[in-house]
Amino acid sequence: MPNAKAPQAIETNDQASTFLNGKNSLTITDNRTGKQYDMRIENDTIRAMDLRQIKVKDDDFGMMTYDPAFMNTAACKSTITYIDGDKGILRYRGYPIEQLAEKSNFLETAYLIIYGELPTKTENEEWVYNIMTHTLVHENMKKFVDGFHYDAHPMGMLICSVAALSTFYTDAKNIMDPSCRKLQIFRLIGKMPTLAAFAYRHSVGRPYVYPDNDMSYAGNFLNMLLKTTELKYKPNPVLERALDVLFILHADHEQNCSTSAMRNVGSSHVDPFSAAAAATAALYGPLHGGANEAVLNMLDEIRHKNNVPAFIKEVKEGRGRLMGFGHRVYKNYDPRAKVIKHLADEVFEVTGRNPKLDIALELERIALEDEYFIKRKLYPNVDFYSGLIYQAMGFPVEMFPVLFAIGRTPGWVAQWEEMLLDTEQKIARPRQIYLGHDTRDYTMMGKRTQKA
Ligand code: SDX
Fold first, then answer.
1. pLDDT for position 2
2. End position of a domain, from candidates 5, 30, 65
3. Residue 329: which CATH number?
4. Is 342 one of the annotated active-site residues of the chain?
5. I need a surface site. Which of 159, 227, 406, 417 has the fewest CB within 10 A?
6. Same domain, yes or no, for 123 and 35?
7. 106 CB contacts (<8 Å, ≥6 apart)?
8. Are the C-beta atoms of 81 and 91 separated by less than 8 Å?
9. Count of the separate structural domains present in the chain
């Protein structure tokens, strides 16, 4: 099993050309002083720290950039996932998502994302063995999950359970030891489905099911969710494959909100379980991984496709969002949504067609023809159709973001490790523009006047 590597960019000719020839530089004139500054351009970016030389007075702090929500800021260099939002392209380590969804499986894709290459047969067998022999959790986790209220949201339970792993595996703090990181990665990928299944079984009042390590990753997850009194659970192969493909599609997505949380929290050198709990919490938000749950709730609210025009009108008047539409990066159709839409047909062959699909298709049809959405480049994203499949497979909507978290775990750990190995990275600590009070003296209670 190889060790992950730091992000070594694959140099291309234009990147290798030097700054000194002046062709790879930006000249900035500060009109306040008339001074000019030459900034090196590298990978079509300038270093924010190079701006600090721009001052009016010598004791000024120097120039910064202001970029709320990091709309136009690269926080890291990475060789893991490439997205071209305008062209609707998504590649893991250079492999198009469409090919991986068709030809690969989730654990092989997880290996690719983490180690950078598709595994050989031997590497894959060792990898699968290592993951599937780390699916059990400490027995005390059952008492921990039992402590939640009967109707606790499974994402709330998952966030807490992932964080709790750090209390059982105290060796996980040795994050700069490659073999320790490897073991924690086995544990996180291996145990996420178990924790997710425990949360689900608690919410439906059924006994916990132990992992069956003879099964596939997705098959074992279905086993832990759905097994009742049979001796050996037999997953439906179509649903098992569909879930595996959905995990592939969710495995990484460069610097999304939850991955940024993993990197930021991980940059404090906390253990990976605590960082993954922060990432899971970020994913819970309805603007991020919680969107697939919000899509189903939206379809329930619309109730019938005849109500779609009225709903679209409300959205255009700013009274709500078309959940599952729009994306910070994709200004074209999310390539994952295309794959999921085809996958839905295969799943519905087995489960029966989800009647809400008619509402979703009508929403898409109208939105893609409407100037409001066209102008804002709003297309279906990964969450628009995934929930329909999950619901048809029998998952309650509250479990949808939990499924997203299982799929995203390889991406989180790969990005976390890339951050740790990147010699340019240190603890994440952004600056601010302070617009508050200047210094002022403490006022005793008796002298404070009621503000208007
Ligand atoms: C995921 O980052 C990732 O990679 C995430 C993800 C991953 O794999 O990790 O791809 C997974 O999170 C997918 C996105 C799931 N979220 C949703 O489906 C929620 C609905 N979508 C949005 O809230 C929104 O599109 C975001 C949050 C996804 C992106 O928002 P941005 O980039 O901050 O865009 P914005 O909110 O500034 O919107 C730009 C304009 C605004 O209109 P104006 O103010 O210019 O008039 O587009 C409008 C927004 O009002 N708009 C929408 C809309 N999304 C944006 N209008 C209606 N419905 C929507 N869904």
1. 74
2. 65
3. 1.10.580.10
4. no
5. 227
6. no
7. 217, 218, 244, 245, 247, 248, 251, 407
8. yes
9. 2
269 is catalytic: no
Nearest CA to ligand 1 atom 25: 326
Ligand 1, atom 40, lies closest to the CA of 376
What pLDDT score was predicted for residue 23?
79
Tens digits of per-residue pLDDT, 107-148? Answer: 999 999 999 999 999 999 999 999 999 999 999 999 999 999
* H or E, element range at 423: none
Report the predicted TM-score, pTM, of the whole model to 2 decimal places: 0.93
361 and 416 within one domain: yes
- Show the ligand 1 pocket: residues with CB < 6 angstroms: 253, 256-257, 287-288, 291, 315, 321-329, 376, 378, 381-383
Distance between Cα 15 and ligand 1 center (Å): 33
Q: What is the pLDDT of residue 81?
A: 98
Closest C-alpha residue for ligand 1 atom 12: 288
Structural contact between residues 405 and 158, judged by C-beta atoms closer than 8 angstroms? yes
The DSSP symbol for 119 reads P
Which CB contacts under 8 angstroms, 24+ apart, belong to 361-370?
Answer: 361/305, 362/305, 362/308, 363/302, 363/308, 363/311, 363/312, 363/322, 366/308, 366/309, 366/312, 367/312, 367/322, 367/325, 370/312, 370/316
3-state secondary structure of 371: helix
- Tell me: the pLDDT tens digits for 10-69? 444 444 445 555 579 999 999 999 999 999 999 999 999 999 999 999 999 999 999 999
162 and 134 share a domain? yes
- Count of all residues that appear for the chain in the document: 452
Residue 447 counted as domain residue: no
The whole domain housing 33 covers 15-65
> How far is the C-alpha of 36 from the C-alpha of 31, rounded, in Å?
9
| Matching residue, tokens 């479990």 | 399
Q: Which of 90, 255, 322, 381 to mutate to test the pocket of ligand 1 (most atoms within 8 A of CB)?
A: 381
Report d(CA 194, CA 192) in Å as an integer: 5
Whether 308 has a pLDDT exceeding 50, the answer reads: yes
**Residues 210 and 233 sit within 8 Å (Cβ to Cβ):** no
User: 196 CA to middle of ligand 1, Å?
Assistant: 27
Residues 35 and 179 in one domain: no
Which is the closest atom of ligand 1 to the Cα of 384?
A: 18
- For 37, the 3-state DSSP assignment is strand
In a shared domain, residues 393 and 413: yes
Q: How far is the CA of 378 from the centre of ligand 1 (A)?
A: 8
Measure the CA–CA gap between 435 and 33, rounded to whole angstroms: 24
